[in-house]
Write a structure and sequence with these properties.
The chain has 253 residues and is mainly beta. The chain contains 2 helices and 14 strands, in the order βββββαβββββββββα. The chain has a single domain, classed as Jelly Rolls, CATH 2.60.120.260. The strands form 2 sheets. Strands 1, 3, 4, 7, 10, 11, 12 and 14 form an 8-stranded mixed beta sheet that branches. Strands 2, 5, 6, 8, 9 and 13 form a 6-stranded antiparallel beta sheet that branches. It starts with 14 loop residues before the first strand and ends with a helix.
């Protein structure tokens, strides 16, 4: 299995698998990664809403979470009226607030601080997970934006594990026309394999870069935690394969 370290790298493939130092399992009380029962257990900052329809759609079930970089009162996407791309009634938060909530250093969300390319505002959602070695966390995501072209305005979406950030997509990614936002990646799936027992904080976010205008968004759905099969499961699998092999040899005779 290929592995990669957390860092700001655009994801071009439809699926990504990488390894980090812990594996998620369902915490006490259960874990509804489809959001069909709401946002219990999650904390949010900025414009975060639970939705059933546009501007995206669920990748499965009936509900998904949408995060945007939109203001509530400013006309971010002129000539569209103010607030059209804000879905919760709460404005996107200042990047200093996001960094504090994520537990990262000032400037950690800036794509290129040396050249003064800075993140300015956005939204995040996060929660703690009790974890166990060897499990796999997967989730569906869709990056949407009204911004076209790469630099100098590369709005982006990311996943965070204990404050370690990996970019999922940005405005330079492969995008396609979208019915509500101008462009979108469409749903893609990312998988994370953890290597040891721990407690982790899982987060998702989207940020405006270089300006406070032109909205970008991130849809999240279908978060699944697959535990490592118990040893007896492997034993049963081997028995089944051995039995199948014996039957095949018998038929050939």
């Amino acid at each position: 299995m290929n592995s990669m370290h957390f860092g700001f790298a655009a994801v071009a493939a439809a699926a990504l698998t990488f390894t980090v130092p812990a594996a998620a399992i369902a915490p006490l009380g259960g874990f509804d990664g489809s959001f069909e029962t709401g946002l219990a257990g999650w904390t949010s900052t900025g414009d975060v809403s639970l939705r059933s329809l546009g501007p995206a759609a669920p990748s499965q079930g009936f509900l998904y979470v949408l995060l945007t970089s939109a203001s509530k009162t400013s006309q971010d996407d002129f000539p569209v009226a103010a607030g059209v791309f804000n879905f919760s009634g709460t404005a996107a938060a200042d990047v200093a607030v996001l960094q504090l909530q994520l537990g990262v250093a000032p400037g950690a969300l800036d794509p290129d601080p040396v050249n003064f390319v800075s993140a300015l505002e956005g939204s995040i959602i996060q929660r703690s997970l009790v974890v166990q070695a060897g499990s796999t966390l997967s989730f569906d995501w869709n990056f949407l934006t009204n911004e076209s072209g790469p630099a100098p305005l590369p709005d982006y979406a990311f996943v965070s594990i204990n404050g370690n950030l990996t970019r999922l997509a940005d405005t330079a990614s492969v995008l396609q026309p979208s019915s509500f936002f101008t462009l979108a990646t469409g749903y893609q799936t990312t998988s994370i394999v953890f290597a040891s027992d721990a407690t982790v904080v899982l987060g998702f976010g989207v940020v405006d870069v270089s300006d406070f205008t032109v909205t970008s968004a991130l849809a999240i759905d279908n978060i699944q935690i697959t535990p490592v099969p118990e040893p007896q499961t492997y034993a049963l699998l081997l028995v089944g394969l051995a039995t199948l092999g014996a039957l095949v040899r018998k038929r050939r005779r």
